[in-house]
Amino acid sequence: MKRGYFAVFAVILLLMTSACGKSSIYNTEGVDIDLSKVSSVVAYAEVYNIYQEYESYFGKVIRLKGTFDVYYDEEKDVNYFSCVVTDEMACCSLSMEFVLAGDYSYPEDYPQNGSSVTVTGVFGVYEEEGLLYCQLTDAYLGEKGA
Amino acid sequence: MTELIDKLLMYLEFPFVRHALIVGVLVSLCASLLGVTLVLKRFSFIGDGLSHVAFGAMSVAAVVGLSNEMTLVLPVTVAAAILLLCGGQRAKIKGDAAVAMISVSALAVGYMLMSIFPSSGNVSGDVCTTLFGSTLILTLSKTEVWLCVVLSLAVVTAFVLMYNKIFSITFDEDFARATGLGVGVYNVILATVIAVVIVLAMNLVGSLLISALVVFPALSAMRVCRSFKRVTVLSAVIAVGCSLVGLVVSILAGTPVGSTIVVADIAVFLIFTVVGAVRRK
Question: A26 pairs with which residues across the strands?
Fold first, then answer.
């Protein structure tokens, strides 16, 4: 019986060792948390966690894959750009606002509204009219940057 | 194979994935233990009814603005469970009629309250998540995870300590009463434990799919085992296995968590039905 347990443990250890270090969500290619590699269920859950425990994510470089969305605030005459992450049924969605590094103008330098985008940026929060908003600053579109 | 394990290990880096696996295993274990008793007592559908009551209570908690919904959801669900399981033959509306009535009433009132007093900007998303448990288990807070662990351990301990009493009242209440067993007290305890399990299981599969978590492992085990003890043990093994497989597949393939676990339960039930039929020949 003990031999059986040992064999199972050895196989698990072997598989874990062989797989270890090949792929990671954390700290790869200058990105602290890469959510472009994971399934929609997990990406949605992690963005949810970021919103719940935003203090733990300050200053981290986060990469997201989702749908590009733009909201125009008429009063302030400002465009807000965001990457929308949905769960598998798309009944729940969370959007992460981003601000591109450098000077870009809308709509020339941005993707079409509703198209799929990958955004990488530094996580932070800002306060506006008494409310806290999460955003990725110094951001770039695509995998390797603009 | 190595690539798949590599991918799984990558997902396990997320704390919420590890929490989901722990909670998933514990909740499905609890649901399967009580599932055997509920199926044998012909209360298979009580899980569905109670989960709808929990949904209604959750809506009220959200409307009132309670920070911890459990403080309202748990007592209301326990009260409904006691009413349904311990109402007995004296009740004017009993059995499946009582379950159906409470179930649909709570569901309708809950949905109406959520629509009139939305607690967030996405009512359909909230309802979808609560009913089908799409990503609920992956978004649990640390407090909720600990609560699930403590309540699950309490349920397993209660089941193990009262195993003989549960066995007696499951098969013949009159005989158990004749031997001096406090059937009423144990029925109340059983109803309380069932309500706790239902509230916990809502996090895993959502309120519409809870019945599957309660009945499928028990029914699968009954296809191949005959004794109460063997059915209970095999049911627990099936429930934990299906829950783990469902969660892993869901995380890797991006499918809805609740329905993936239930599909795994259905597949095992079909396999065990075939195995049972072959063995009887």
Answer: A33
